[in-house]
Design goal:
The protein is mostly helical. The chain has helices at residues 4-12, 21-31, 33-38, 43-49, 52-72, 76-92, 97-100, 104-121, 125-139, 149-161, 164-167, 189-198, 212-228, 232-243, 252-268, 280-289, 291-300, 306-316, 318-324, 327-346, 377-403, 405-415, and strands spanning 146-147, 177-178, 350-351, 354-355, 357-362, 365-370. The longest helix has 27 residues, at 377-403. The protein is elongated, with a radius of gyration of 42 Å.
């Protein structure tokens, strides 16, 4: 078995122009991983002197060996050093992505473990977020929709920091595949990789190894982040997938996903449409803890004062809901029910496009307030002035009409239709023969 110095010499002597160099390095690193684990003190020397343009895969294997051995021995200093190395090289820009893709079973678990170590062991969530985002930018193309275990670690950090925007590009609407994180046997790794390079058309795809718990955490944490963004429909879709993951035993995350499914569904549509196909283990576990949530669903769909019914369920099971972190969502449900109740009354006061009342919410109290009619005083004054001018104009024209000769003559013609009139031989004026002075 060669020493670390011997491995370093072998890797650095491989020419960069060698087409099979990446596969050779990956095989060497996997084959002699034990060398790094047995001599963790020499890993730093290897990382400092290894050419990353050739040995990117081997460098990740060395860092993972340092981390795993340190965790196994409860050596916090060694684990800290491994995380620092990983962060440095991921952010350096010197690693070759195509080489790292040859060791997904090394690089993705290492990235996931490093992020979780920052989050849980060191309680440094922000450092974990920075590390996760750096690794995601290097290793993951969000347009491909392929999920890795690193996604679950990123989402966990974002939930802790309440940073939805950082995770949003990686919450895929359509998951197209999973990263194959299975360990590859050292005997067949080079032969298989060279064969794939020479023959791109493979009759059957290689089996993908991906632990279901990381898919569950991807769905669970992703749904929580979407609920915080109020994208309830997408959150419900992820939760449906989470509770349908098969298994002979259920987990805390899957059971809590079912609780969140109840809350999100009641908040979104006011009803529960339970998907078929849940595992029997989850069904059995739900019977032990699901009564408060079933009572909540019954209260939301009941007749009468539904908000008060939900409040009663909340008060009766406050300890359970508090432990589950569900009080905030239930309070939102109560608020929505109260608003809907008041709006149903307000609809009766809304006619002919005119709003006669509006809903006002302040200090937790919902009020129905009559909307006072708003009058534009300047507009009213100008219209009154215009009306006064028109009235004066009408009076003036009426006075002119009474004195105009043409209008007077027409008025005299109209008098001929009256029962008493002048003699027929008289003209329309005052003739001499008809003068009253002759009598």
């Amino acid at each position: 078995m060669p020493s670390i110095e011997g491995l370093l010499k072998i890797i650095n002597e491989i020419p960069e122009g060698d087409e099979g160099a990446p596969e050779k390095v990956a095989e060497i690193a996997r084959k002699y991983k034990d060398v790094f684990e047995k001599k963790p003190g020499e890993v730093e020397h290897f990382l400092t002197n290894c050419n990353p343009r050739i040995g990117s895969a081997a460098m990740m294997v060395a860092i993972k060996a340092l981390y795993d051995s340190s965790i196994a021995k409860n050596n916090e200093q060694g684990a800290d050093r491994a995380v620092e190395f990983f962060k440095h090289f991921i952010e350096s820009g010197n690693l070759v992505l195509e080489h790292l893709k040859l060791v997904p079973d090394v690089v993705f678990p290492l990235a996931r473990n490093a992020v979780n170590y920052c989050l849980r062991k060191k309680n440094e969530a922000q450092i974990g977020l920075d590390l996760a985002l750096s690794a995601m930018r290097l290793l993951v193309d969000p347009n491909e929709g392929i999920v890795s275990s690193l996604h679950s670690a990123l989402f966990a950090v974002c939930v802790r920091l309440n940073n939805v925007d950082a995770a949003l590009p990686y919450i895929y609407r359509n998951v197209t595949g999973l990263v194959n994180e299975s360990p590859v046997s050292t005997s067949d790794s080079t032969t298989e990789n060279v064969h794939v390079r020479k023959q791109r058309t493979v009759s059957a795809p290689a089996p993908v190894y991906f632990e279901s718990k990381y898919m569950l955490l991807y769905l669970y944490y992703g749904a929580i982040l979407l609920m915080r963004r109020n994208e309830l429909r997408r959150a419900i879709s992820l939760l449906e997938s989470a509770i349908l993951i098969p298994g002979s035993a259920t987990t805390v995350a899957q059971l809590d996903a079912l609780k969140k499914f109840y809350l999100a569904s009641l908040l979104y549509s006011g009803k529960i449409i339970m998907p078929a196909g849940r595992s029997s283990a989850l069904t059995r576990a739900w019977k032990l803890v699901g009564d408060p949530y079933s009572a909540l669903a019954t209260a939301v769909q009941s007749a009468g004062d539904r908000a008060s019914a939900v409040e009663k369920v909340l008060n009766d099971n406050r300890k359970v809901f508090t432990e589950d972190g569900a009080v905030g969502l239930i309070t939102r449900i109560i608020k929505e029910l109260k608003e809907k109740a008041v709006l149903s009354v307000a609809k009766t006061l809304f006619k002919r496009g005119k709003l006669l009342a509006e809903v006002s919410i302040s200090e937790g109290i919902v009020r129905l307030e009559v909307v006072s009619e708003k009058i534009n005083s300047h507009d009213v004054v100008s219209k009154l002035e215009r009306l006064n001018v028109l009235r004066q104009e009408m009076e003036r024209m009426d006075a002119i009409a009474q004195l105009h000769p043409a209008l007077l003559q027409r008025c005299m013609k109209t008098t001929a239709l009256l029962p008493y009139c002048f003699p027929a031989n008289e003209d329309e004026g005052l003739g001499m023969s008809s003068s009253p002075l002759e009598y």
